[in-house]
Structures are given as C-alpha cells and as structure tokens.
Amino acid sequence: MKTTRFMAVAVLIVVSGLAPHVAQAQQPGVKRTDLQRHDLSAPGREVVQVRVDLAPAVVAPKHSHPGEEIVYVIEGSLEYQLEGKPPVTLKAGEVLFIPAGTIHAVKNVGSGNAAELATYIVEKGKPLVVPVK
Fold this sequence. Notes:
alpha+beta; Jelly Rolls; five-stranded antiparallel beta sheet; 1 helix; globular; disordered N terminus
C-alpha cells in the first residue's frame, strides 16, 4: 500500500513539473513538437530543437528564452516582432537569430499553416519558454 501511494505521489510530481510545457503545447493553433535535446560541451548549456506549427492568423504571444534561438522557417509566412525592432516577415527557407532573453512574439501572417524549426542554445535546467505578462 505504501509503495502504491509513493508511486502515485511520484507520478503527480512528474506530471505537475511538465504542466507548464503541456499548457504551452496545447495553446490553440500552436503545436510544438520536441525533436531533440542534447548537452553541449559548454558547461551548463544544452541544445534543443523544436518544430513549431502555427495555424493561420495565430499569434504566439510575447515570450523569451534563457539562451539564443535560431529560427528556420519551414513553411508559410511568419512575422517576428522582437522588442525594440521593427517587425520582420520571413518565408519558407529564411532564417532569424534571436539573442538570449529578447522578448518577442510570432504571428502566422500567411493564408495557410506555417511552421518553423527552432533551435535553442540555452542554460540547462531553466524553462525553455518564459511568458511575458
């Protein structure tokens, strides 16, 4: 009986730790697919690759990351608004570098679905996405 309770508590702890990621992944019109995560040779750093799909007219609201983000647009047209800079619209095959901690938002400005490959070089153990309130 104690083992069962212990396992139940352990599962709840793990699930609650994943809740912010799951909530982000289920934002209407946004689908995040984790592709890979690996430690880097630089101490305390890791690389994470994620495919992000956005339905037409969907906005990923203002957020930042605890490291650099390298964006490659896979399909569609995405408008990136980086804090303090004019908006930039990228089409499939174009790239963008977002410095660590830069607040930004992304909007699908095309008529169909849009997708990006986001490569993050971030501090290990920190949340990948930090929402801005």
